[in-house]
Amino acid sequence: MDAILQWLNTIFTTFGSAVFVPVMLFVIAIALGTGTKKAFFSALYAGVGLVGFGFVINAYIPLIVPAVQNMVAVTGIQLEIVDIGWQATAVVAYATQAGMLFLGVGLLFQIVLFLVGWTNIFQPGDLWNNYSYMVWGSLIYVATKNMWLALACMLVLNLYSLLFSEILQKRWSKYYGYENCTVIQLHHVGAVPFAIGMNWIFNKLGLSKIRWSPAVIKERLGFLGEPVTLGLILGLVIGLLGNLDKLVTLAAWGNIMTIGISTAAVMAVFPRVAGLFAQAFTAITQAARERSVKSKSGREIYIGVNDAVGYGEPATLISGIILIPIMVLVATIIPGNKVLPLVDLIALPFMVTALVAIMNGNIFKVVVSGTVWFSMGLVVATRYSGLFTSVASQFGVELPSADALVTSFGILTKPIFGGLIFPAFLNESWLWIVVLLVVYFAAWFWLRKNKQQVHDYLERTADGDTPAEA
User: Fold this and answer.
1) What is the three-class DSSP state of 405?
2) Mean pLDDT of the 326-330 span
């Protein structure tokens, strides 16, 4: 079994999402009866889009990371737990026995849930991000030496994340413009219940009148409100903050201007790549609808997509960049926090996608909500940093020092998954585990009955209707 799982791991890491996602989409398209030609182009455009996203993001992030890290260094903040980033966390997850087990069992589980109609989301469209389940399961296994408990934890986390994705799916698809697509990553969709609650509070207090969406900003500020101009301004600000200690040097100003232009470039290029990626789903969506009408099942299929597809959307990128200095500052004043956000700060545009969709791109709402959500998450990451450090050190992560503690700001700062579900399995609290399962099944049956009403509510309240009006 280990050999098979290792083979799967090797195959997947060798080819990556740019190959696996097109293969998955080709199979789905053929199964839905699109025809070979349409299936081929659906797969090809998906691969082209993913590679395009990779080109943009992979060129942008290495440029801005040093500035962000220097910004943190210049502040002189001393917090004992260092953020080593989601990339290192993913490597750890794929290296553990629990991670390898979920690589096979989890894939089968996700396919079966889709085929039997338990969910209408085809989750294996983004296999790579299963590492987010794998890392929590790895922590359980190292702490308890109980592989069954670790597997159970990962499967329950998977059930909850799919539930939240089904709540989000229509709103996310409409906002980001990818028909019948949604994000399914555990480390992003966990914010869905919180985002709905915060949006209700904003609407109740009338704060939705503060409309900081890209469209409104563009209308009010003219050319200064254009996404590329906002990208330039925000990039210049981050560049300045990252070079505060060397502003008298020419190299610093070259770096500042480069970051500014590069951020503007992301704003300009990303929508064009997104348009290519969106073409991958046109034929599949049409075929799925035709089949649904013929069978009278009413089932609407959604494809789980990689979180990179939303990174450069204007409200998403702007909100994420604004949150970078805010989270560095907030980390120093949160009671109980010892985590210094660092490597994953640049991942904040990934991390806010659920907030952005539910709040319809209102940057004010997203920034305020994100500050609260990630602040709570820092306390969760602090709590489990010792255990994560133990796991990471066993699987090749080089620690800053022998007694250093590490974590991932992007992956382990999850108030619901890490603060409520994970501890039940870690502490082997069987009563709490039963409660979690009862809550899940109750919520699942309720959503089956009321899904349309839930989606309608999110549409009505996304742009600021008060609860009474909704």
Assistant:
1) strand
2) 91
